[in-house]
Amino acid sequence: MKKIAKQDEILLDKRASQKQLPFSIDPTVFTEKPTKKQIAKLTWLPVTGSVTNVLHHATSGRAFTCGVFKDNNRESEKLIKQQIFCVDFDGGMTLNEAGEILREYNLFYNAGYYSFRHSAELEKFRLLFVFDGEIQDPKIVKSILRGFYHLFQCKSDKSCVDAARYWNGTDKDYFMGDINQVINLKYFSEVTTPLLLAADRNQYRKIVTADEGILCAKSGKIIYNINKENQGCTNQNKKDIDKIQNFNVEDLQQFQLFKIFFEGKGTNMKNKLSHHELFGIATNLIHLKGGSSIWKECLAKNPLYAKKEKESIYKYVYDKKYDPIHFSKFSPYEEDKTNFFQTFRQILIKKGRIFNKSNSEEKLWKLSDARAELTKKYSEIIEADDCDVHIIKCATGLGKTQLIKNTINIVAAFPDHDLKKEHFDDSELNATIKLATPALIGFSENVQKHIDAIYINGFNDVVNTLIKNLAEGISINDGGKCSREDIKAAQAYLEALRAVKQSGESNTIFTTHHRAVLTSFPQPTIVFDENPLGVLLAQGAVPISDVQKLVLELSFTGNKVLAEKLRACINSDSKTVFDFVGMAIDEDGLYKMIKKLKLKSKIWEFLKSDYYVKINDRINYCTNNIWRLPTDKKIIIADATAPIELYRKILGSRLKIVDISNVELKGKIIQYTTRSCSRTGNEGYSEAVNADLDNWDTITYKSQKQMFNNAAPDIHFGKSRGTNKYEGRNLNVIGTPNYGGAYYMFLAKVCGLDVSDFTMRNRKVLFKNNEFVFYTVAHEELQEFHLELTEGDIIQAAHRARPINHDVTVKVYSNLPIPHAELIWWKRNTPNQ
Fold this sequence. Notes:
The protein has about 850 residues and is of the alpha/beta class.
């Protein structure tokens, strides 16, 4: 080491920093540590010079201060500016130990010198640090000096933390560090703020930092972007961080640095990660749900980490809402630098990933409270004097059906005849009060087949005429005979129907959704148990081949207007929705024509529909029955999954909503979101899914039951509402139902949406505070309807087990997240991951 002798030698030193720094000096030379009286006589002259000028002054035995002051009065509040900082070590740490700490945090000192009382046995020295900008606020100066104190593990001089501090010169040697470098103030703040947080019990009140180069004294502000690109910057305008909530830690270990951290190992001689590396990992972990737990778990595996201060890094990064820093910016491993994915988000954002964007917790009903609330709200709505449409959205298993089937003076509508009969039989109402609309059953095999065939064609009115004839002994088949069995069945049917029609308002009528919509009843209130949307917007499809036969016959018989309309649809491009608005149809002539052609599809139902469109080799159609909901009656829809936004669109201000659907579960739902398990997808990976299934009943698509083990024979997507058969059982649910492109075209028509593109593709969607990739349309409102309907079908299937009432497990395989599910993207025994 060389003692500086002459100032001109310093000024000519080309290796020394030429940065001009403000500081103050006194010309008095001391050969030993001055007394308090001598110090009191010092005067301070502001100068500018390089860090080597400071060294020359100090090693000449002269005192200095790191700042300049108003009126040359050395008081903190009179600080004008400061750029160089001095940290004093009075025997608590060696120079080598201080250097190791700085290297750990990717910091450095510029130079230093040994103090008067330094010895080989007890090292006493001062380190000089040059920052990249002038500090004009004494509070920031103090914060920086406190940061140094905690950076050096509280082993530097604690008393030297104010802007007015002066420094004695020395008669000892100086030493050089990174003489030509300067410390970025923003980076220094990010390094030391977590240390100060740990010291101040994770409170920001004592921390003062600079705000993006603006020299001020604001508490807890973000001041550093660790690199100059977009990643790594803070985003305090965010209300909260969007977190990935279903992932596997093994995926994160594709980054070698994180793997080392997770295993409790290190990247340096001290067998731990540096601050720079920890900081970068923290900016990635805060974007994962449970990231804090992973961070603490990794720290706990390595006793070399100072747990308190290292945990403060995570808090600091989280509070400042950092965007994830690329691993190439802080990892020492080449494989991380060259990894195609550079952040945890990038490596995890794939189809099936779910990002929770909720800023608050929704109210979660306790089961007993939810039941009491349902009973209360149901009674209030029944008693209210209005003609509104009320949707009571309540969790499955709360007891809505029990309330409905025991209510007087209503039409109680159920999804099908079987459920209607089941609840009619179970109802506690007096037999003189309750009535049920009849089903077409009890006929001989031949007659039943004939009735069913006519229904298949959609000739409901024709069936009613035939039943009346049959009751009078007139055969259904021309020239045939009637059996006594069929006559009695027809008479019983008509008598039951007559009793219902003649019922008074005090009676309760049990019926189906279909009849409740299409038939008039005297009761002032209609209550639908489950969602009747399938009747309100009834859809179907007929083969183009049947329509072509009909078009040919229409052309021969002179009905060219209808023939041309149908031919236009047949020749269309599958993007045009047609309608039958204003079309006059000869019902009797068409019935005879269809009977002559022996068409077996629902061609008559198609001709009576409102909208239709060609999709591949079929013509899909939709009948809008919403207008049939009587406006002079109260309508109640009690359902767990009613699509609220869709109903809001089609019913407008008439709609009133009660939501008691968010109820705590006694059981649990585990959902694997890796695959959509769509019908098309299952054709490719059903065997892999099958390998994961537990030996439980499985609910899936009607057309794919043969693909999966233990497929439930009697329920499937589209037919799972209302049944209690699987209550208390563990279940598998496989699939993400899709109503088909035509249905969404019809929804757009019914809702008056201006949609030109119905193309479905994988898109990033935001649905109920979850962001994920889903196969859907681009139009946001129509997209919302699509997601509501699909979610509803999955929930209905999953809740057949009644997990709110029973300690059961339901495993769902779908990429559309449902409420209360534990979402898992990856499963260990799933192949090809």
